[in-house]
Amino acid sequence: MKKLRAIFLLLVSFSVLGQSPSEDMVIKHIKYLSVDKMKGRGTGSKENAKAAKYITKNFKKLGLKPLGTNGFLQPFTAKVRRVVVPDSIRQANNVLGFLDNGAPYTIVIGAHYDHLGEGKQGSLRDPKAVGQIHNGADDNASGVAGLLELARYFSKNEAKEPYNFLFIAFGAEELGLVGSRYFVNNPTLSLDKINFMVNMDMIGRYNADRGVGIGGYGTSDAWPEVFKGVTGSIKFFTDRSGSGGADHASFYTKKLPVLFFHTGGHDDYHMPTDDWEKIDVKSEVGILEVEIKLIENAMKLPKLNFTEVK
Hints:
- By secondary structure, the protein is α/β, with parallel strands linked by helices.
- Helix content is 32%, strand content 17%.
- It has helices at residues 2-17, 23-34, 46-61, 137-155, 178-185, 223-227, 248-252, 281-298, and strands at 65-66, 73-79, 89-99, 106-112, 164-170, 194-200, 212-215, 236-238, 258-262.
- Strands 1, 2, 3, 4, 5, 6, 7, 8 and 9 form a nine-stranded mixed sheet that branches.
- Strand 7 (212-215), helix 6 (223-227) and strand 8 (236-238) form a beta-alpha-beta unit.
- The protein is globular and about 50 Å long.
């Protein structure tokens, strides 16, 4: 009887805490965003707009509230810095879904959903690849899949969390963090109401020898307490820096604590060979489980203070 009661309590606890990240859901999102027919989700393309629509659909399904300036969308104009083709001005969108727990402060979770299209928007490692589809499975369909799974996890909790959540899929990151910079300069939620920001950019190619890097450890003196005792199926290491070439840097410049998850570079980075078949789905789920532990630990604390990394 005691054993049955323990099993019952365990099942109840999983129900209260939300559903664990799912390998099936992660690969479903990554495949949708990075198959050839999405043509690399280049900023301004109809496929990029289709990706935004897909993210919006999932936000709606999870019951998130729109927090853009046009429903879930926050439109902006992006300029291609390194022009390979004449159309250097492109229309883009951030996609914002808000989980309102009635709390005074909000945790931002982000990932960019754009990539290089057919190699005509700059950032190419191989000039011969112009005209080839750059699928961007790791960069950054993997991060968007993580964003959607964390949105599913926290939105399914029966008990309200002590913080709200703002899930943001950023546009035009590959053109110079344009979407995240636009948001922090034109916030749809006051920046002083943000507790911290978590960014996922390339979390799909886990290397067991390296582990997953977690940047931003120096951006709040509370992070050591948050990380205390956290372990998982994957190994990780921390880096103090809050700046860098990903969307968390935009929040760091506004003096907000950040964390940045990244599994490292590889030979397929910014190449047409960054395909979904190469994603380590099991390890990505392990990374998300570590993220959840860290976020839940952080929610036990008051609003985190910001510290500048020297």
